[in-house]
Specification:
The structure is a single chain. The chain is of the alpha+beta class. The chain has one domain: 3-Layer(aba) Sandwich (Rossmann fold), CATH 3.40.50.300. It is 15% helix and 38% strand. The strands form 2 sheets. Strands 1, 2, 3, 4, 5, 6, 9, 10 and 11 form a 9-stranded mixed β-sheet that branches. Strands 7-8 form a two-stranded antiparallel ribbon. The chain starts with 8 loop residues before the first strand and ends with a helix. 32% of the residues are buried.
Length: 157
């Protein structure tokens, strides 16, 4: 049940939905948030919001929407502001921090980021890595297993 007194938190970032699961992409200005979202949309994701994302706590979840003036628009460098289909009120399931290539761990530890008392699975990726959209799709598919390492010797038994 939504708490009528709960306030929206505004987060700089871009959000998309994959099969009803929300992904919030965050990073510095110019780091590739909108570009990565565009590639995810090309693969079937749906835009939630670009540039600013509103987060509202609802029980043990954070719900993402876009500010009214930004709904349905994505900045595509070289083209401008382009209209897209969009969805609202999608639960935040995964946060993606955009980092430089020397900050991406080969085998990352399990990481949750606490946002407004809610633990959110978090990964670090390079925005312009050609496989970044696929990695996000895999992370959503295997959300509960993120960061759990498999001992290679167990695979050979």
């Amino acid at each position: 049940m939504n708490n009528p007194a709960s306030k929206d938190i505004s987060q700089h970032g871009t959000a998309v939905s994959i099969n009803g699961q929300g992904i919030l992409i965050i990073g510095p200005s110019g780091s590739g948030k909108s570009d990565l979202a565009l590639r995810l949309i090309d693969r079937g994701a749906i835009l939630i919001s670009d540039d600013q994302v509103l987060l509202r706590q609802s029980g043990s979840h954070l719900i993402m929407s876009g500010p009214k003036k930004l709904q349905g628009y994505l900045e595509v460098r070289g083209l401008g502001i382009v209209p897209f289909d969009f969805v609202q009120n999608i639960p935040l399931c995964l946060m993606v921090y955009l980092v430089s290539d020397n900050m991406t761990a080969r085998l990352p530890d399990e990481t949750d980021q606490i946002v407004s008392t809610v633990p959110i699975k978090t990964i670090k990726l390079q925005a312009f890595d050609p496989s970044a959209p696929i990695k996000i799709e895999l992370a959503i598919k295997h959300l509960d297993d993120l960061g759990k390492l498999v001992n290679i010797n167990q695979l050979n038994e």
